[in-house]
Amino acid sequence: MTASGATVLAVEPLRGPLDATVVLPGSKSFTNRALVVAALAEGRSTLEGALLADDTTSMVQALVRLGIPVGHDVQAATMVVDGVGGAVPPGPAELDARLAGTTARFLLPLLALGQGRYRLDGSPPLRARPMGLLIDALRALGGVVEEQGEEGHLPVTVVAHGLDGGSVRIPGDVSSQFVSALLLSGPAMARGVRVEVDGDVVSRPYLDVTTATMDAFGVPVERHGESGFAVAPGTYRACRYRIEPDASAASYFFAAAALCGGRVRVPGLGRASVQGDLAFVDVLAAMGAKVRRDEHGTEVEGTGELAGVDVDLADCSDTAQTLAVVAPFASSPTRVRGIGFVRRKETDRIAAVVTELRRCGVEAEELDDGYVVHPGAPHPARIRTYGDHRMAMSFALLGLRAPGIEIGDPGVVAKTFPGYFEALAGLRARSATGG
Length: 435
Description:
The chain is α/β, with parallel strands linked by helices. It is built from 14 helices and 23 strands. The mean pLDDT is about 95.
């Protein structure tokens, strides 16, 4: 099973339960945050276990284009960053975030720290994603941002003269990435930054990823209640930083165990992980799977019995598509709530999930903020992936249980997990019957 050069990929069902330990690539969320922090640090940092995929490559290439050296060793999964001590090289520069929302959003405040003109753009799907709240926040902090296209969207030009910083309020119901972006560049602002969040923050655990990364490089984030975050002016300290495996990627393999029986263990994702998507195993446990966690990793064992759940996935929304393909095999309906904001991701992830489940003959319904999936036996179908890596990765899991599932445009997984289908094929070799 490989996506290399394929326009359609057929997924074969597994014949027996699993018995696998799966070593996964590093977290995209940690990697892109660590790249920004290391770039702003004083001295040379080494990022161990870093993810090399389209989303992180776009960040690396943007930093290099800015004049910040970044080297990487593919085999060792390490990146070496020569930081600039908060002094972003002057423009002009033209940067392309491609499809990466984290790259675009994290770079925008960083560019405002420099001097001169910096143009930031992305591929058409990224241009469609909202940037307006972050643009408004930067203007409130003294930044100058010119929109070249639709208001509140890429492309933009940052006319930089350093960033004074100060206090800003930002709504929390669109993306936690806006808050993270301001915090990551906060130490290099003349007065630091204080961010007050109005309302509940969607995907709040990602802020824990941000603060954990910053703290590892010597800059703490001060919390003020549930909605206030403050960073004093200062300089990140270069270091050797270990990036843990990606919990979003792990969700597919944990789901495979719940669907097919047997066990899957992912080392490196232990009890201390702050990645919100690791909470997906708690959902699987509520459905009937067995979950074991220790200091060194997490393991899921399928029991052969799954029950539907009613769950709010606002804090781990990247696993909503994974749950959608587990749900048809449950004994009762599954309802997912709290994820209305995922309609503004790479695609409308609620509409896409419901459409493709129906294509497979599974009854499913759209809600304003989620979906309902009813039990059913998927029939053969070719799945559309809508340019969304998570549609391809999640719906491939259907094919582990149901014959005749094909994935259109499988290469889209390169955005965050280029080796996904090879890793999925590896499960076959480690099933109880050897596939």
